[in-house]
Specification:
About 35% of the residues lie in helices and about 20% in strands. The radius of gyration is 22 Å and the shape is globular. The chain starts with 9 loop residues before the first helix and ends in a 7-residue tail after the last strand. The strands form 3 sheets. A 7-stranded mixed sheet has the order 9-8-7-14-15-17-16, sandwiched between helices. Strands 3-4-2-1-5-6 form a 6-stranded mixed sheet, sandwiched between helices. Strands 10-13-11-12 form a 4-stranded mixed sheet. The model is unreliable at about 1-5 (pLDDT under 50). Helix 1 (about 10-20) packs parallel to helix 9 (about 170-185) and helix 8 crosses helix 15 (about 355-365). It has 15 helices and 17 strands. The protein folds into 2 domains: about 40-140, Rossmann fold; about 160-390, 3-Layer(aba) Sandwich (Rossmann fold), CATH 3.40.50.
Amino acid sequence: MLIDKTHPDELGQLLQRMAAETPEDTAERTAWTFDKLARPFADQIVLFGAGPLGKLTLSRLQRAGVEPLAFVDNNSKLWGTRIEGIEVFSRAEAVERFGKVAAFVVTIYNGSAVRDQLRKAGCERVVPFAALWWKYADVFLPEFGVDLPRNLLQHTSGIRACYDLVADAASRKEILDQLHWRYWLDDQAMSPPLPSSDTYFPTELIVPAPEGESYVDCGAFDGASIQAFLDHCQGPVNHIYATEPDPGSRELLARFLAALPEPLRKEVTVWPYALGKERGMVRFAAIGEVTSKVGETGEAVECRTFDDLPWTVPPTYIKMDIEGAEPDAIAGRAQLLEQHKPVIVACLYHRSEHLWQIPLLIHYLAPDYKIFLRRYAEENWETVCYAVPPHRVRR
């Protein structure tokens, strides 16, 4: 499935290949990919990974009336426990019990190494979770950038516009890679991910702010991304703003901030707001994990727009990892972009269409910004858009 690198229009060639498959063939391929990979154990499922992705997969399978045989996890504290009635085993015991009689679905991010290890340990069938999600699309999709392949063809004009907009060849290659994976689950056509330690802070693309950075961490969780900012910051830190609507996550964040040196700690403002395009109240599913998000259920929390936040120091660098609310948050910052020209860093993997919609939205609001795409994990995970004002682009 590798594309011809000598073709003058690689995206056009790829879109033609996608369109050449009939809708009926696409639907059949999507519905049967998991069964073909798991055969003859498509109804005997073991989930490897009892973290957020594994728990989400379990809950959706149970909604579809499917009960996995077991969970497997490397965390020894979980062995012998049950999650929603499903027992958790060690890898060794699970391979011995189920390796010859079940399909192991790897429900962790960056799962290629685990899939290889399970095959070498003797598991007959090892399958990526996205194939399972395709099979039970009614309960799973769209979710976390995974969608039915046929839906991509409804957005070819937007994909083309984004491809023509981005500022460098690496960004265009990332779009091609993403389309390969999202249409065929073809991770072999993808470039290796960049080092995860550089997520949100590509110093090879962005020069430091001349007068120091005022960093805004939207979706601050436990403070890890604030620490990453401090590790990468090449100049003075003027201020740090952190938005986190989840009370449990704010407790973790408070512990992190308490350990900072006092002069720096005084320069941190924490806001308990969700972010959106309008001010008001929204529902927020607060579960104390990175997947907490605005949705149709949960507690009522206050939502603010960027343009009505009480900035004491103008922001220069804004990072957004807010579980799919990125477009609404960006739409609420037109005045901020015009006045202060901050760098915008937005995650693209929470919804499939965000890959092209978010860059195009930023371009609409700030047409002079340069747009770059980079990825720091396997498949579509940790795909990030960097929108950089001209004076901050590293030449």
